[in-house]
Design brief:
Structural class: mainly alpha
Order of helices and strands: HHHHEEHHHHHHHH
Strand content: under 5%
Number of helices: 12
Largest sheet: 2 strands, antiparallel
Radius of gyration: 19 Å
Length: 285
């Protein structure tokens, strides 16, 4: 049995090692990248990747750590850009000034770009050193899955919907579709990538995908409950515009049960996915 409790520490140490640098002329953008990357994030997405991998494989974490790091870098870049005046125009994130408030708008944009680019650099370096053909194919599939989930048909597409619609024009279906893309796609990818690298067969990847999709939406609905005091005239969309608190709580329960059902028939080595997810979808209680 692997020590799941130490996964977060191992991940943070690995992530830190990727951004070591000297005092180069471009140090300001690297400082900006590190500011957001180590600003107290909960590491939910990389942890889902690591735990998913550990549920189905006893192999070395070196196989999954680059993918977990890439996912966290992509997530962080999206937050930096989301906070910009042209997007959500936020002054604070995680009780700290947002990146552009500390480093200027221009540097914040470049920091987001730098994190997205570095996520690919990390994976390509890793893939370049894979000698086993089966492992190489899995790594390529995982990389493709990540960038498909975060492109215009995934996270970027969801963010486009978020900024393109006025609140008054939203329907419940629009909101749900936006959630699936903006939040759910990367959460689902985080879970599925762990299974791909662990070598799960296609039918089991489908089950894991269903698990990740259900959890992604449940997680966002839980965020809505945490933000239930949000001003509906703030320009931000919340599912509470269409449903009451009790309806959302019931939907979260249904989605969580659907996620657990999707795992039935899968042989889990650690039984760590369910308790980790249970904490994610019960944060408002």
């Amino acid at each position: 049995m692997r020590d799941i409790d130490n996964l977060l520490e191992k991940f943070n140490n690995y992530l830190s090692s990727l951004l070591e640098y000297d005092n180069s002329l471009q140090h300001k953008v690297i400082d900006s990248m590190k500011y957001s990357l180590f600003s107290g994030g909960k590491r939910i997405r990389p942890m889902l990747s690591l735990i998913s991998f550990c549920e189905f494989s006893d192999e070395d974490l070196d196989k999954i750590l680059p993918f977990a790091a890439a996912i966290e870098m992509i997530h962080t870049y999206s937050l930096i850009h989301d906070d910009l005046p042209a997007m959500d125009d936020d002054d604070f994130r995680r009780d700290k000034p947002t990146n552009h408030k500390v480093y200027t708008e221009g540097v914040a944009i470049l920091a987001g770009d730098g994190l997205l680019n570095m996520s690919m650099e990390i994976l390509l370096r890793h893939i370049e050193n894979i000698e086993d053909k089966i492992d190489l194919k899995r790594a390529m599939r995982a990389m493709k899955y990540i960038y498909s989930a975060t492109g215009v048909n995934g996270m970027i597409g969801g963010q486009t919907i978020d900024i393109d619609f006025d609140v008054a024009d939203y329907t419940e279906e629009d909101c749900e579709n936006m959630y699936k893309l903006k939040t759910g796609a990367l959460i689902k990818a985080s879970v599925v990538v762990g299974g791909i690298i662990a070598g799960l067969e296609a039918d089991n990847i489908t089950k894991l995908s269903k698990f990740g999709e259900s959890i992604g939406i449940a997680y966002q609905l839980e965020d809505d409950l945490l933000d239930e005091e949000k001003d509906p005239d703030s320009g931000e969309v919340n599912m509470l515009l269409f449903k009451d608190k009790e309806d959302l709580q019931n939907e979260i329960i249904d989605l969580t049960n659907a996620a657990y059902e999707a795992l039935e028939g899968l042989e889990l080595k650690q039984n760590a996915l369910k308790p980790f997810v249970a904490k994610l979808v019960n944060r408002s209680k």
